[in-house]
Amino acid sequence: MTAIRQLTGRRVWDSRGNPTVEVDVYLENGTMGRAIAPAGASRGEREAIDLRDGGSRLRGKDVRRALDNINGPIAQALIGLDATDQAGADQAMLALDPSPLKDRLGGNATVATSLAVLHAAARDGGKPLWRHVADHYGCAPSLPLPEIQIFGGGAHAGRRVDIQDFMIMVPGAATLDEVMDVTFEVYFAAGDIMARRGKLAGVADEGGWWPVFDSNEEALETLVEAIELAGEKPGERIVISLDVAASEFGRDGRYQLALEDREMDSGALIDMLGGWLDAYPIAAIEDPLGEDDTEGMIAFTRRFGSRVQIIGDDYLVTNAALLDAAAAADACNAVLIKVNQAGTVTESIAAFDAAQKAGWGAVVSARSGETEDVSISHLATGLGGGQLKVGSFQRSERMVKWNECLRIADEIGPGTFVGGAPLAQTWWGKEQA
Ligand code: PGA
Ligand code: ZN
Predict the structure, then answer these.
(1) How far apart are CA 77 and CA 99, in angstroms?
(2) Where are the beta strands (DSSP E) in 102-144?
(3) What would the pLDDT profile of 84-110 be if each residue is shown by its tens digit?
C-alpha cells in the first residue's frame, strides 16, 4: 500500500480556450500522478456533468466550484487511502456524491482526480500507465486501431453539416506507423480537393477540415475522392466511419437535417443512413439515432448490425447498466468509452467489462475539448479494447494522443497492433470474408 499524501486541483485551459481542472496526486513516497478533465460539446443527457460556476465571469464557464470540491471534500476523503486501490478511491468520491450525474462534486472534478490516482499508482509500481492498466484489470494490452476524423461537422463546426464526424480507419494497415502514413495522405488530399472547390472554411474543433458542403452526402463523396486521390481503393485498406451524433438534431423520433432543409422520422433517417451504407465503404457508425430513440436504435441494429459496427456514445454514456439494457435489446453492438461521461475510472471499466461480456467492441474516445493529457492512449492500449478515437490529424491536443501511441508502440513491441488480423475476425472481417 502506498497512501495518498496530498491532492491539489488547479485551473488550466483546454483546446477551445475554456477553463478546466487539473489534479496532482502525491503519494507518501513522493510519487506524483497528474490528469486533466476534458470537455464535450455534443454531450449526452445522462453523462456526468461538468460543474461550472455560471454567472457572468468567463461566460459562466469558470471551474472554481469544481476546484473547491477537489481541494476540500475530495482531498479530505482521499488522503490516507491506498493509491493502488483505484476502486477504493473512486468509491470514496461516489460516497460524497451519490447523485447519478455527479452534480455535487462535478464530473470534471471526479474524472481528473480518478485519472490522477491511476497515474500515481502506475508510477508507484514503476510501470507505464498502459502496463499498469493491463495488469490491474487483467487485460491483454494491444495497440488500438485509430478512428481519425477528416471532416468535422455538427456541434464541432457551427453545424455547417449535420453529421458530426466523417472519419477513416485503416484496418488493412500492418502497423500504427502505416496508419499515420495513410492518414496523412488522405487528410491532405481532402484539404486540397476542398480548397480547389472553395469548400474549405478552416479547421473544426477536433482538427478535421471545416467544410462548406451543400449536403451531408457531398462530404461522403469528397471523402471517397480523397481516399482515391491518396492512391487507395476505398473499402480495401481504408474504411469510413461516421459519428452521426443524431441527438444533436433529433428529439422524440423527429430529426431536422438543417443543411438539407428536411425533417424526417426515425424510419426515414434509417433508410437514408442505410442508403449511405450501401453506397460507401462505411464500416462503423456512431449514434445513428437519438439517445432517446431506443426503438430506432433497435430497428437500425436489426437491419445493419451484422455488417457494420454500431457504436453507442450519447446513447450509452459509458454506463454499464445502460449497456446491459442495450445489449439485451440488441440496440447497438459497440460502445464508446469516455471516462468523463462516467466520471471515474472504475465506472468506465465497468462499462468496458459489460461490453466484453456482451461480445461488443469498445472504442476509447477523447472529447471535443481536449488538452495535453494522454491518459486515453494508455487506457485504450492497456485494456486492449481495439479502437481509439481522438479527433483528427492536426492540432496538438489530438496529435499528442497519436504520438503517445507511437511511443507506446516502441515500448510494447511489434505484433500487438489491432489492425488487420484480430479485427478481421470481428466486425470488419464479416464483410470482407
Ligand atoms: P463531444 O463529441 O466530445 O463534443 O461530445 C465527441 C463525440 O460525440 O464522439
Ligand atoms: Zn459521438
Answers:
(1) 17
(2) none
(3) 999 999 999 999 999 999 999 999 999
- For residue 147, the 8-state DSSP code is E
Ligand 1 atom 1, closest CA:
40
- Probe target for ligand 1 pocket from 313, 314, 340, 397, with the most ligand atoms within 8 Å of CB: 313
Burial class (CB in 10 A: 0-12, 13-18, 19+), 19: buried
Indicate the pTM of the whole model: 0.96
Question: Please, where are the H alpha helices in 336-395?
Answer: 339-342, 345-358, 375-383
Q: Evaluate whether 419 touches 172 at the Cβ level (below 8 Å).
A: yes
Tell me the catalytic residues: 206, 338
367 lines ligand 1 (CB under 6 A): yes
Percent of residues, the chain, with pLDDT higher than 70 = 97
Distance, CA of 373 to CA of 41 (rounded, Å):
18
Q: What kind and span of H or E run contains 94?
A: helix 86-96
Query: What count of other Cβ atoms lies within 10 Å of the Cβ of residue 75?
Result: 18
Ordered DSSP codes for 148-201:
EEEEE-GGGTTTSSSS-EEEEE-TT-SSHHHHHHHHHHHHHHHHHHHHHHT-EE
Q: What is the SS3 string spanning 28-63?
A: CCCCEEEEECCECCCCCCCCCCCCCCCCCHHHHCCC
Q: Is 201 in the pocket of ligand 1 (CB under 6 A)?
A: no
